[in-house]
Design goal:
It contains 8 helices and 17 strands. It is α+β, with helices and mostly antiparallel strands and 307 residues long. Strands 8, 9, 10, 11, 12, 13, 14, 15 and 16 form a 9-stranded mixed β-sheet that branches. The structure holds ligand PPE.
Amino acid sequence: MPVTPSEKVWMDGKLVPWGEAKIHVLTHSLHYGGGVFEGIRAYETKRGPAIFRLSDHIARLYRSAKIFMIDIPFSPDELVDACKDTVRASGLPSCYVRPIVYMGYGEMGLNPLLAPINVAVVVWPWGAYLGDEGLTHGVRMKVSSWRRHDPNIIPPAAKGTGQYVNSQLAKLEAIKGGYDEAIMLNPEGFVAEATGENIFTVVDGSLITPPLSAGALVGITRDSVMKIASDHGIPVRESNMHRTDLYLADEVFVTGTAAEITPVREIDDRTVGTGQPGPITKKIQEVFYAIVKGEVEKYDEWLDYVS
Ligand code: PPE
């Protein structure tokens, strides 16, 4: 998806013009993939842009950093403010927000402890991740021949930059095969997640999602959906699933900051349910979009208004 520049990028404590947010080719993370990041959305509300679950995202960034022993040279509150400042400076009513902590320029060789740690926050407008059509009518997915990495190879508990090469291999295979997105199984053969989304099924009126131990990222949209479902009397449980559980589910959808709540209409060329977004998927979408727009008071604590 082509990037639309915004006004300013927050780099190591300062807002700099978009075009000046440049780094050296010998940036350590570019070569070795060390670094952690977040994906957050700011939504348009009546009270101006509001960032969805900002402090939860920043907390996850610090947990990811802990796993890789990256000492972030700013406090969580400073990064919360950095995100708000960058969104405010953009003047955009809604946008995607990408904080990234990376190893910078000045050291080469694998020892990450020697490299300087840099932090940036970039915002830009980002529409429907899997397409407007996908958001409304559902996407077509394929179980990938690429497995999600084992937790003792690359920890799925962290949102590390380099681990997305695994997702990219799966995405390539899916796109080249004519599908919208890939589903990844873990080394044991259970469903883990999609390349950049968590996955849910609906069976007999209950929501089911793979446990984190299956190799799913601790998704903030996943958590939001689980809370929304419980609050609306929809039973939710975590359970390991085989790919056939996906084929036979009444409804399937994927969740993520970028993908939001995207229905799945086909998996491995089998129609899911009726082939149309089902009633529970639609209900969750409806409540989710009302919440992010600031229309549901009960969930107002999930919104961080930038002004
Ligand atoms: N699993 C993976 C592997 C993942 O990357 C994401 C987010 C999720 C699940 C959902 O997590 P959450 O956003 O907290 O609900 N993927 C981000 C990356 C998108 C990109 O292509 O870049 C995102 O949605 O922002």
